[in-house]
Fold this sequence. Notes:
- It is a single chain.
- By secondary structure, this protein is of the alpha+beta class.
- The chain has helices spanning 56-59, 70-77, and strands at 11-17, 22-28, 34-38, 41-48.
- 14% of the residues lie in helices and 33% in strands.
- Strands 2-1-4-3 form a 4-stranded mixed β-sheet, with no helix packed on it.
- A hairpin with a 2-residue loop joins β3 (34-38) and β4.
- It is elongated.
- It starts with 10 loop residues before the first strand and ends in a 6-residue tail after the last helix.
Amino acid sequence: xxxxxxxxxxxxxxxxxxxxxxxxxxxxxxxxxxxxxxxxxxxxxxxxxxxxxxxxxxxxxxxxxxxxxxxxxxxxxxxxxxx
Length: 83
């Protein structure tokens, strides 16, 4: 193995999904400015906008954001080709 290519600050880090307040702990070298206490132990905190507990693919709850009726316009345009 080559020397000097691995991060020096590899440690346990808490990742928090801000959309549903889920916290999970894993090893990482991610930079963190804040800390969080989980089960009496303090960990560096990395905030996430989306994770496995809130991602539509994993939860099965897909949201369709339709801006300006584009989907309806598309369906109406190509409705004549459907069988």
